[in-house]
Amino acid sequence: MIRCLKNPLTRTSHKAFDTMMDLKHYLQTYQETINNKILEFLNSDDHSSRVLQAMRYSISAGGKRIRPILALAAAEATHAPAPVLNVLPAACAIEMIHTYSLIHDDLPAMDDDALRRGKPTSHIQYDEATAILAGDALLTLAFEILSSPANPTRESLSRHLNVIHVLARAAGYQGMIQGQMQDIRAEGNKIDLETLIAMHSLKTGALIESAVVVGALFGSANPKKMQALRSYARQIGLAFQVIDDILNVSGDPEELGKAVGTDLDRGKNTFPGLMGMAEARAYAENLVQTALKALELFDNKADPLRGIARYIIDRKN
Ligand code: GRG
């Protein structure tokens, strides 16, 4: 059963959605809705399943739920009918793909991190084999959910196929996995800004862009609006990574829920490393301004997307 969301926008749709309080309320409300639905998907009577426990452990450990919220916000911006009812399962699937990538990224063979979302990483809490399997299982569950639309019609089936295609491509060797491979290969080697941007557009950007595209598919966005939303997503995806790099230098580990200074330790190429801190922040701000410009043809239903763009550069975690 899908819970009915009291959308903060229904109260404020007559005026601009421009205060941080509105955004905070919007994010909290959707975070709760997404968390409840994810737990519904991971609800099983099989309490002995170690892999299920590990899946629940990582996905319930916290997390901002930015990608699923972007999918819901893009659906709203494109006037999709009943976003919570129709888009929420796909939004949860996106969070599952994201959590899988974090579990695998933390493994000893990759970044070898001990802390994520303020808790021991999956391979520390369980063991490496369980962490690999929990990640694999979250990825496959995402596609099981995406391929099981409720009340399928010819139109919804065709959209679901499109959504599956978009997400598979963004997560795969032409998207996030390719970016991760490039990142690993570049460790200890200096790369230029253009290469760094291309790498992060895949590693972090591809899934963020696909979340926005998925929402817009539910809103049957026309090509012009789809292009504008892609452009918005590319800019905020990159800004997200620039801020992530900045927080890895100057963030509070307590607030971040993970260690800082790790990029430098591993010889990673980062935006502050290449440009300096002040330049990197100015670059992120510039990206967000460009993202906001891309939304000019949208009405105030796109205000949450506008708020999220600002939130991405102001965030502390
Ligand atoms: C292992 C296939 C594979 C891919 C890993 C996304 C990724 C690729 C690795 C994550 C490592 C990392 C620190 C990337 C930088 C940006 C990023 C994705 C940060 C984590 O996302 P948040 O801040 O995390 O949205 P929460 O916990 O809030 O969900």
Give a short summary of the structure.
This protein has one domain (17-314): Farnesyl Diphosphate Synthase. It has a two-stranded antiparallel sheet with strand order 1-2.
How are the SSEs ordered, and which strands pair?
Blueprint: H1 8-12, H2 20-41, H3 50-59, H4 66-77, H5 83-105, E1 115-116, E2 119-120, H6 122-125, H7 128-146, H8 154-171, H9 176-186, H10 193-218, H11 223-250, H12 253-256, H13 262-265, H14 271-275, H15 277-294, H16 303-314
Antiparallel strand pairs: 1-2
Helix pairs in contact: 2-5, 3-7, 4-5, 4-10, 4-16, 5-7, 5-10, 8-10, 9-10, 10-11, 11-15, 15-16
The protein binds geranylgeranyl diphosphate.
Geranylgeranyl diphosphate binds next to helix 5, helix 9, helix 10 and helix 11.
